[in-house]
Amino acid sequence: MSTELSEAGNLDGSLEQAADGQTGLTDICSGTAGSRMASVAEYYAGKNVLITGATGFMGKVLVEKLLRSCPEVKALYILVRPKAGQSMQQRVSDMMKCKLFDRVREDNPDFHQKIIPISSELMQPGLAISPEDVEKLTACINIVFHCAATIRFDEPLKHALQLNVIATQQLLGLAQQMHHLEAFIHISTAYANCNRKYIDEVIYPPPVEPKKLIESLEWMDDGIVRDITPRLIGNRPNTYTYTKALAEYVVQQEQDKLNIGIIRPSIVGASWQEPFPGWIDNFNGPSGVFIAAGKGILRTMRANNDAVADLIPVDVVINLTLAAGWYTAVHRPKTALVYNCTTGGINPFHWGEIEHHVMSSFKRNPLEQAFRRPNANITSNYLINQYWILVSHKFPALIYDLFLRLSGQKPQMMRIFNRLHKAISLLEYFSSQDWEWNSENMSMLMSQLTSEDRKTFNFDVRQLNWPEYIENYCIGTKKYVLNEDMSDIPAARQHLRKLRNIRYTFNTLLVVFIWRVFIARSQMARNIWYFVVSLCFKFLSYFRASSTLTN
Ligand SMILES: CCCCCCCCCCCCCCCCCCCC(=O)SCCNC(=O)CCNC(=O)[C@H](O)C(C)(C)COP(=O)(O)OP(=O)(O)OC[C@H]1O[C@@H](n2cnc3c(N)ncnc32)[C@H](O)[C@@H]1OP(=O)(O)O
Ligand SMILES: NC(=O)C1=CN([C@@H]2O[C@H](COP(=O)(O)OP(=O)(O)OC[C@H]3O[C@@H](n4cnc5c(N)ncnc54)[C@H](OP(=O)(O)O)[C@@H]3O)[C@@H](O)[C@H]2O)C=CC1
Question: Is the CB of 431 under 6 A from ligand 1?
Fold first, then answer.
């Protein structure tokens, strides 16, 4: 069945035309030449904006930036579902209380009036939006930002397809009913085509015709789908990148009916400048790795020191997204424009450098209650990594769990390491190789902005100072993810000193113990020991004699 499905996709000649969606930048624009162009904030003034995924990491930053830098925006309609026992209203009200919105709150304490939550479960038919809400949205929305997705790397294919592809199709259907829609901006990922080494700003032919895949998976039970997933995703590492590639194709299919922009960010990290340097609220991507290393839990990971670490700050992605929304609506490109939102080609930084700066930052600003002193190394060698996993992860976990057991507590360290190893194994694909992205459209977009907009919606990553960014990122994980207080840093340093002393004591005891075992069992070890000790004595007496002579 898997072969049939993938072959069906690959043999479909019409798919090959998808790549032809690329058009020269000079002939894509129509309309506004000659007249004074509205600035980005002026464009959003009086507009009704629809956002999916507004409760997520990037969605929240998008909502915040729109409210802060486009204060005349009319309303933000956000699609939200109830979750984890919380109603939609409760979730939105909690979100608005979050620290991220402090600056907006200062500027406009009533900012919440502009946020209009719409109940929606994207996995349901019709996105589970009520008919009244559909009517409201189709009557007033001017621009759509589609951020919602499952970003889990271990998501079962059916689920990932339902959310990342089918929900996108449904949203496109809704968008087509909108009477005043000016632009549809879809957030994809720079890794949608990670099966290629060079990635252009085009939509590549999808690995399979999405419609055929959807029809085929419909009748299969979860077990069959799980079995054929590796064959279907082929040389992509997970269902996430696979379904994001399919989603791009689905979006492109509507380019004749809608003005479309597709944003492809690489690895989205903490904010660079706005609203605060280092803002981050999750463990995804590198953040979890940094935290695990800062806590002294993670000591080794497979990554290529010399590979480019294509991190991109979340505020850069959002600034580019808003600018792309403006450009798409104002210039109405004839085909969907793709923006590779990456740093590697413009201001490259490597995993080896990240390792160095993360470690030194956590030594200066330690996390509270670290398990061990932060000291992580990356290596591209499988065997060396396995060795360090054994010595620096499993062995200490075993000892710590033994200590917990003896003191009547529940052992937990081995379980933590097993989860960490699972997470890391899913990330290593991305940290062990590099890709080259063309990001001409990012430069083109920048050239279209006024100098004022270039400052307000800054996505010029040439200005990014990596060591400073990484320092703020690490501090951000401490402040905003772990909710640790900066005033506790002296205590955290004291804790690290204690850990260092424990390590020295432990190492000394270990050497003495091993030596005692050897001495007790082997005549040769005893001879070596006496030889070394007598050599030391001779050296000491020579040293003493020569220093007495010189005095
Ligand atoms: C050696 C140190 C020096 C550093 C230098 C080297 C650094 C190398 C870093 C390499 C990073 C490479 C990153 C590549 C990313 C590619 C990006 C592609 C871009 C994208 O488009 S999408 C965004 C990326 N998506 C993700 O990152 C999602 C990955 N996560 C998952 O798929 C799942 O969460 C995972 C890892 C399978 C775990 O699943 P599960 O066991 O079911 O756990 P939960 O998700 O429910 O989470 C439970 C609990 O754990 C916390 N958590 C989640 N992830 C991590 C983590 N990586 N580290 C630590 N903790 C983590 C999570 O918040 C939950 O906490 P609760 O308190 O809520 O229970
Ligand atoms: N983070 C990264 O490194 C990168 C992300 N991207 C892309 O950016 C976009 C945003 O990612 P990010 O903010 O990090 O992801 P998050 O996981 O933080 O947010 C996902 C959002 O989607 C919503 N969502 C998920 N499932 C459903 C559902 N069934 N019904 C309604 N809403 C749902 C979530 O809502 P809820 O709160 O209810 O779960 C949440 O608001 C995605 O399209 C992703 O592919 C691209 C490159 C890198």
Answer: yes
